[in-house]
Amino acid sequence: MGSRWSVETVMAAAPDSASQVAGRKLARPGPWSSIGGSDGLLWGECQGSGKTPYRVTVDTGTRRYQCSCPSRKFPCKHALALLFLWAEDRVDASGEIAGYAQDFADRGRPAAGGPAPPAPAAVREQTPAQQAAAAARAAQRDQRVEDGLAELDRWLADQVAGGLARAAQDPYGWAEPTAARMVDAQAPGVAARLRRLPAVIASGAGWPGRLLDELALLHLLARGYRQRAGLPADLVATVRDHVGFTVPRADVLAGPAVRDHWVVVGFRDLDTETVSTRRVWLHGRVSGRWAQVLFFAAGGAALDSSLVPATVLDADLHFYPGRAGLRAAVGTGHAEPVALTGWRPATDTVATAADAWAAALAADPWQHQIPVVLRGRIDHDGRGWSCTDPAGASVRVHGTELDLWRLYALTAEATARGPLDVVGEWSAAGFRPASVVLDGQLVVL
User: Could you give the C-alpha distances from 185 to 142, 143, 177, 182, in angstroms and in order?
Assistant: First the structure.
């Protein structure tokens, strides 16, 4: 069998993060049968929701994929799952090659005296008929989303007309049916926003106002999608992103690269019942640009830890479309990461950070946070935590108790040096610290 791929190589082959997660969820023996491998060729049958299992074949040598499922992604989640199993040495290399796999392998071989096989990155197995079918499925999804968001808009109007007090009686029972409907409508981003509403209701005094803000954003998203034909391209990309459309990672990597020495300033992990997400912030030492790299894992799998805080990565980043301009995919690395030294980033005051947040919301009203480096003093009193900048302006600070007390201790140690430079996330909730810059080095909380 050919040289075995690592799990990281399989992750890199996925067209997007959603496919990575879906492939990991299927990488277990349960749905698979007649699985095997020989000389870099992998095959197996994966049971889906229908009676007939999908036949999957992967030629790891030429990076060619074939699956009988209707997915328009290449490789699809079934091919990725088969690769994950192989990467983890769970594919038996013995046995006779399945007929459909042999046919696939034969089609990829050059004829005698013919040209060499195409480069792996250029190989696509979509036929014109498949391309037409993919276009039809995309149009069908657009219509489903539009119908679903029209239904959402009617539900929003009912909630406002009927009053929000009833939502507090059973917050989860109130939001979940509509969230499930949005999943059916293939608008997972909208479903996720709806599933965060019970937490808003439980957020304490003033929750009706905050809930109304969230409902207004959902209405704006539904309206934006309905009127997308008249919007500029970057705003359409922003709306589609928040609705839940994904952009294939391969398409992002095919776009312009921004090379810089990227400082990994911190990360935050978020867990749901099915998927874990790691949000990593990077800052370009030369360009001063911020970037956010997301990693996903499902089924209890470990999150990617290749980006280590307090290190510098000489690499190309490719940014996803949209007005926020923050999410990026890591492309070519030009050197091994090194430890961070001598870093003195430009800092914000409370006023400039608030202005940056206002500008960010004007461009993308649905985003949740932006990164900032805030210079100030950390205080704690009976009203809670705060950060006060040299001009005397303050902002509420939030986070885990452990992080905040550690930050407070660093403040006490650095009193003689003056205000601290604290890296963190600015949002409607205030400022959430992630790390501190001390003597040109980064101390991660």
Answer: 9, 9, 12, 5
Cα separation, 78 vs 131, in Å, equals 19
Q: What is d(CA 10, CA 185) in angstroms, rounded to the nearest whole number? A: 29
Q: Which of 17, 11, 10, 26 is nearest to 244 (CA)?
A: 17
Question: 271: which residues sit within 8 A by CB, 6+ positions away?
Answer: 277
Helices assigned H by DSSP within 88-196: 99-107, 128-162, 171-184, 188-195
Identify the band that residue 115 occupies on the pLDDT scale cut at 50, 70 and 90. Answer: very low
The DSSP secondary-structure symbol of 103 reads H
Most confident of 77-81, 260-264, 333-337, 380-384: 260-264
pTM value?
0.69
Q: How many CB atoms lie within 10 A of CB 145?
A: 21
pLDDT of residue 299: 64
Q: By C-alpha distance, which of 411, 414, 395 is closest to 403?
A: 411
Residue 137 has phi, psi (to 5 degrees) of: -65, -40
C-alpha distance across the termini of the chain, in Å: 45
